[in-house]
Amino acid sequence: MADRPGEVVGGELTAGPGLGNQGPDQGYALKLAERFAGQLVLAAGEREDDALAGCVAVALRRASMFGRAPVVHDLRLALELFGFLDEADAELVAWRRDQFAGAAGHHGYHVKLRLADLIPSDTLRLTPAAAAEARTDNWRTPLGL
Prior knowledge:
The protein is mainly alpha-helical.
């Protein structure tokens, strides 16, 4: 029972468009992202900070679906989905260049929110290896495009 002033009771203020995906210890995803710095395979016009910011948002959504804090596998799944850990299809690279642009900037909240909401829940339940395999078959399918 909520007995503290200011405690949110019910789901009306915690779920809905533009409110993100709440979960415990979400800041830890930023620490996990540091592990991948310098390891991403980027094309001309892509920025590492944008790629990591967008993938952190997807990782946080995945972790919150399971009701837990983020783990490295959440971030690895996001990086695999978008092809940042190896050479990706040229069409995927062109698509993600536009989709991730500005994710790490001051106005990147909506970019990150759109990226997190883009991925179907079924895809977020995959293992990172299964996500990588699904992307190699047809990169659009696991992204819900």
